[in-house]
Amino acid sequence: MREDQWRNVWQRRVLMSSPYVDPFDGVESSEPAAKSKRPSKETIPLSFHIQWPLMQIGNALSGMVNGYKRLFKMSDSDLKAMYLKQAKSMNQKGDTKKCVEFLENVVRIDNRDADIIYRLGVAYEKNGQPDSAIKAYKKVISLAPDNAKAHYRKAVLLIKKQDYENALTDLEEAIQEKPDSAELNFRLGQVNDRLKNYDKAIEYFTRAVELNPQFLAAFKNMALTYDSLNDHEGSLKCLKRALEIEERN
């Protein structure tokens, strides 16, 4: 056998007896290198692509469940504070409906908090629910009879409904707490005028403009009351004063 033939036989024996080492797992293989297929580092199993969205949904649901668990564990005071914060945010955004809903949630937690019920009444007014507002103010008054603000706002709504007798009762309660309020004196003048208590109305209107000399509405209403008393001179004086205020403004 020639030398080159012996060399070829020797090389084949060396190749067949040398083990193949897989560089990815470090395990020796008896398979020759030519029969091995190297896996790609970039290959990601199809099952992972399928399971990934499900894993994400599972994580989201888990977060929601944990959130609800924390919510149910919250104390009444914490829930109340949370709803009040949301109500304030909705009020600032002008979303009166949502503001009402959050305040109603607060009242369900604590129906003895006169201040919160008063705020609910104001929210009802803003949301165009005068009857609900009146009901809320009545509740406030039952809890805090000296709450002048509740008496006043209830009275204004009753004036709009032309329920002057009940409006007068509320205003008389309110004025005891705030005797130096120009607004309350004006409203008492207004109600007494509607009830044809003209002299009493003049007293309250006069007091209102003493407390606030720029009270345009009080001068205009007082002019009409003087006219009802056939006091045309008094009516003319009030109208002139009203015109002066309007010209300045």
TrEMBL record:
TPR repeats lie at residues 114-147, 148-181, 182-215. Keywords: Repeat, TPR repeat. Coiled coil: none annotated. Pfam families: TPR_1 (PF00515), TPR_16 (PF13432), TPR_8 (PF13181). SUPFAM superfamilies: TPR-like. This is Magnetosome protein. It comes from Desulfamplus magnetovallimortis BW-1. The lineage of its organism: Bacteria, Pseudomonadati, Thermodesulfobacteriota, Desulfobacteria, Desulfobacterales.
